[in-house]
């Protein structure tokens, strides 16, 4: 079977806010399905594009990439430098690849662009076994830290470090 061509990945700009919001929201729906109340999705439908526009207009130390295939956004990644006292100097804050794009190495390419092989950390929903396995293949390990974020519908998250 011939290899599939790679998705096009580039730095995101303010002009990508709507596309990033769509991928972010769809990625949540595909990943968390019935675990997050519909009210959370409904609220995010009304706020996520504006949040992305603001984040991209004033990114600070955060860098965001967008993956596109055939002109449509299919994935995103964001990473940021962290301050003193953090477990690593770099945090992967987001990595979402739409279900139809998974298995095409787009997530791996996004991860490599976002953090390379640098020491870093990320938070992942505790029982997202697919994501934990993906990150383990890239050298990340659970370090025992855990948190609950109201913004995530109170889904507990665990920290992975590399």
Automatic annotation (TrEMBL):
Record domain N-acetyltransferase: where: 7-162
Keyword Ribosomal protein: yes
Cellular component GO terms, alphabetical: ribosome
Gene3D superfamilies documented for this protein: 3.40.630.30
Keyword list, A-Z: Acyltransferase, Ribonucleoprotein, Ribosomal protein, Transferase
Molecular function as annotated in GO: acyltransferase activity, transferring groups other than amino-acyl groups
InterPro entries xrefs: Acyl_CoA_acyltransferase, Bact_Acetyltransf, GNAT_dom
Protein name: Ribosomal protein S18 acetylase RimI-like enzyme
Organism annotation: Georgenia muralis
